[in-house]
Amino acid sequence: MNIAVVGTGYVGLVTGVSLSDVGHTVTCIDIDNEKILKMKQGISPIYEPGLSDMMTRNIHEGRLHFTSDHQEGFESAEVIYIAVGTPEREDGSADLSFVEQVAKDIAFHAIRNTVVVTKSTVPVGTNDKIQSIIDESLVQQVNLEVVSNPEFLKEGSAIYDSFNGDRIVIGANSKEAANILEEINKPFGVPVFKTDIKSAEMIKYASNAFLATKISFINEISNICERLGANVEDVANGMGMDKRIGDKFLNAGIGYGGSCFPKDTKALIQIAGNVEYEFELLKGVVKVNQKQQGLLLAKLNERIPDLTGKRIAVLGLAFKPNTDDMREAASLVVTENLIYSGAEVMAYDPVAIDNAKKILNDDVRYASCVEDAVKNSDATLILTEWDEVRNVDLDVFKSMNYPLVIDGRNCFELEEMKDNNIEYHSVGRPV
Ligand code: UGA
């Protein structure tokens, strides 16, 4: 199939590259010409394991193309994916202006019947709106049908997830359009679930909101465990053995971050509010998440009430491992607070430092390895559970002024920290 993908952010690029890898001819379109020139050479604008290799291979085999020219991109497309951003507005709702503009562009350039696939996460009812915009803006007498096909990839394992996902959801008004999308996705070997458009849109929000709920739930349990002297990891393991609960997404920590959960939970609260329904449970989930980041700092403040001039090592800046994405990362709030309290911050992350430099407080300093970050520090805070952090030789903490480790990700066993005389505060486990 000839496919065009509009938007080469995280979702669009991974979608385009993996569709080319299973044999489709794909043109990725983006308005950022500089980015297009780099991608043409196989340089990925995001850090995602396996993505650059897959890009390079498919460019060489002539199946993957990049352009900033909409007309060129749409010329031979039988199917066009919309994968542009839907950023959060101040009130928590999703800003749909990019999606709507792309819908107009598609209609303007359309010269044949085309299936238009919405990959961007859009509020329930948006696909109907996109269909109306397209129908109103068509120049030629052609039929464009909009299909909802939400994305469930996780950053850091997106390529793996493309070929090993749990489901592909297709929401369509006609069997014909749904079947075209099913056929496109057949080579991935992932189970397909077909439904109506509104339900497909809701599946995306409900799934992210449910996962966020699991995280806030276990974080609340962890806070109670700390007060009672129980161990949240054992609690989660014991709970997870019940197949109805499942053992995934029960890792207590410093709350969820990233470009999806924080934005999508707030958007779903808005979506419900728009139809006069108060989503009380989800409001609680969001509140708990905001509280959770502060708890790590509270533990530090309890141990070191005056941070003026204290040197604090921060390990991990990205919102989770295997990504350089800093969006809604706990490190934003944590480093800002540390600097505000007069601390000297020495941060380390294996891949996110370049992105961090663009957004973190200018006073944050950066180390080139875990060892350099930790050396001579008064406390070490762990924000991201990179393997490099998990597997560090514990002797490294002996180079601190005093071995105080406050871990927001439970990277180490309690026993090993005790055996190494490290004062270790983790999440939901006894000190
Ligand atoms: C999430 C969903 O998992 C994907 O299915 C979805 O496609 C994506 O959002 C999206 O809507 O595009 P992602 O944001 O890449 O994917 O990251 P996750 O692996 O889900 O982690 C999100 C946050 O939750 C991270 O900050 C992570 O540290 C935190 N988390 C996750 C926990 O604190 N505990 C857990 O047990 C799991």
Automatic annotation (TrEMBL):
Pfam short name (any one): UDPG_MGDP_dh_C
Catalytic reaction list: UDP-alpha-D-glucose + 2 NAD(+) + H2O = UDP-alpha-D-glucuronate + 2 NADH + 3 H(+)
EC nos: 1.1.1.22
Pathway annotation: Nucleotide-sugar biosynthesis; UDP-alpha-D-glucuronate biosynthesis; UDP-alpha-D-glucuronate from UDP-alpha-D-glucose: step 1/1
Keyword list, A-Z: NAD, Oxidoreductase
SMART domains registered for this protein in UniProt: UDPG_MGDP_dh_C
Family: Belongs to the UDP-glucose/GDP-mannose dehydrogenase family.
Xref: PANTHER family: UDP-GLUCOSE 6-DEHYDROGENASE TUAD, UDP-GLUCOSE 6-DEHYDROGENASE YWQF
Name this polypeptide is given: UDP-glucose 6-dehydrogenase
Species of the source: Halobacillus naozhouensis
